[in-house]
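Check the record.
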Amino acid sequence: MNYRHAFHAGNHTEVFKHAALVLLLDHLRQKPKPFFVLDTHAGLGLYDLKSPEAQRTGEAEGGIGRVLARPGRGLASYRAAVEPFTAAGRYPGSPAIAAAMMRDGDRLGACELHPEDVEVLRGHFRRDRRVAVHHRDGYEAMAALLPPAERRGLVFVDPPYESRDEATRLGEALAAAWKKWPTGIYACWYPIKDDTIRLAISGALAAAGVENAIRADFLRYPVDGERLAGGGMIFINPPWRFDEQLERVADEWAELLALPATGRKVVRRLGAHV
């Protein structure tokens, strides 16, 4: 699996993923104390919806394109975060969304290992003192930068799944980070063709003793092991009643994006091991 975000920016699974991110940031903003966001695989930060990569797949039309075609529908805070960018023909990645929602005292650590991508990322945030861009491995950054001085915040893990051992590395790094910072909020995304990636991640978390977790899958197609059916997320230490919020958003997004009933699914697993 190789999920290069430039080809998939603004598609149905990106819209759901970023709506979940917005819900978590909304929660962190409810208290006046500052928070820290670690984005382990920040990518380019912004994506041109008219780029050759985006045009090749056309996936944004079935995602953010449908959202923009229905003004006033969907999560209001998500719209507020993304519409200033989409008005200019661009779709914001997770670091741009986080920065758009952060306050003056909040911080973002955005990590990107690709040498060309990290320079583009630096260009976007060069004038933003709240944002530190790191040219480093995101999993190594989780070990080095946690826990943050703020003691409250979010770790957002969204790798491209380029290597065969990506899911194993992610699960191990996430479990180790949780042990170092057990009160932090963690959100990781995975593509769904089959259950292989999810089981590798959830297995590592279960072995570490993680209990307070939610799993959510958002699918356009049935899972058949061949094509990209959609994406899923695992959340550790989600806010109170976050599962209910997420399910409402998933239902509204599924209707807004006109997902077929055969593909749409949200799964929640609470309490016991992931």
